[in-house]
Amino acid sequence: MNKPATIKELCEFIWYLEEKYNLLDFEIDGVKVWQYTRMQFYYKLAEATGVLSQPHSRLSNTDKIKHLFSFVKNSFSDNYFTFKQKDAIVLSHPRTVNVDGKLIDIYTKYFIDELIECGKDIVEFESAHLGVHKKQKQKFVHYTDWIALVQRVYKQFLKVNISSYELEILKKVEDEINTTCKSKIDLAVFTIKSIKTYKANYKIYNKIFQKVKPKTYYTVVSYGQAPIIKAAKDNGIEVVELQHGTFSKYHLGYSFPNRKKPLDYFPDKLYVWSEFWKKMIPLSIDEEFVVVDGFRYLEKQKSKFDHIEKKQKQLVVLSQGAIGNTIAEKFLKHYDRFKEYDIKYKLHPGEFDRWQSYPALKKLSEFRNVEIVKNEIPLYQLFAESSLQIGVFSTALYEGVEFGCDTVLLGVNGIEYMDRFIELYDVEVLS
């Protein structure tokens, strides 16, 4: 088997491994470890093979030390002993967007408002983004800094019971991965660390759920949350995921094409934005538990900007952290076609502090008609103003369509995600 060179090839290789070694049911010390680490390992392997780069900025060791003080400080005001019984827990997304001068989580803010209006007594769990809490803290918000600290300490004292047979299986999988992908991954070390993290988080959240006693646990990103979801289900708590982005055949957080039975760590319900998303791919839960709930933020923003007239010669390029440099290179290659346009090059938040490391984008930024945009202009304002959008597989492309933008896609790694989009909207793909 050749080294995977595309997302499609990498996914097919992972599915092959899963089927050959029955990885989705592979259990070590009570943990279905592959189910838990599947997406994490996908990103790890995608980076190792060069299929994708790191999608988000990482904290340096210096930054980690700098933020440790605030984590400790926050742990005195928000900790296990401050919990009270609540109807629901909502784990918000740490990334924020500036809306009318306030930083909000676009996926949960309006949903939480509705829960409160309906008389639900809720607590929002807020984790730090790159070590910092940016939103104005509401009375129902509970910082999870203490959980992160306790988990890191606690897992150091945990042991993993792993048999020689299980180590043998891991070794076989590791050899096949490293031979095919030309990588140097130590699967046993990765697995043992992951199980320790799982066990620590499960123990903490099990205690939390027993004290708070919520009826429902809402989350924005379920993959990677196996210990939390398992703890919730063990306590009879319904787990609901709120859609936060695209999913397709090649998004391994949701796509399990060879799986015939339910997953252990998948939510009980998935709230999606529209019927389109409900029918996108077969999911690991029955169709009746995939509920169309709308995208409140998008609906509010459409009405806010519906008075803006389109500029026929303005386009927006949608960058993405995992393929940011590749997007810039491909767009630069086709720049002459769009040189008469006023070009708004919209960065993903994970690129704000590193876009200048993209040689192609630095070159583009020197052109008079190209403006690099962080948060200076709201994304939906850009959509309302622009006649054309260009990207690869960003969720924002679907939102741009809602604003009446014509679409051109760049034929680079990740375009596989857009098979259904291309089919539905008959868009041009630039090779």
Key features of this structure:
single chain; Rossmann fold; 431 residues; six-stranded parallel β-sheet; alpha/beta; 40% helix
- Under CATH at level 1, the class of the largest domain stands as Alpha Beta
Mean pLDDT level: 94
Global geometry: globular
Which runs of at least 5 residues are low in confidence (pLDDT < 50)? none
Strand order of the largest sheet: 7-6-3-8-9-10-11
Q: Describe it for me?
A:
By secondary structure, this protein is an alpha/beta fold. The protein has two domains: 1-304, Rossmann fold; 305-430, 3-Layer(aba) Sandwich (Rossmann fold). Helices cover 40% and strands 16% of the residues. The chain has 15 helices and 17 strands. The strands form four sheets. The chain has a seven-stranded parallel β-sheet. Strands 14-13-12-15-16-17 form a six-stranded parallel β-sheet. A two-stranded antiparallel ribbon has the order 1-2. Strand 4 (97-99) and strand 5 (102-104) form a beta hairpin. Helix 11 packs across helix 12. The radius of gyration is 22 Å and the shape is globular. The model has no long low-confidence stretch (mean pLDDT 94).
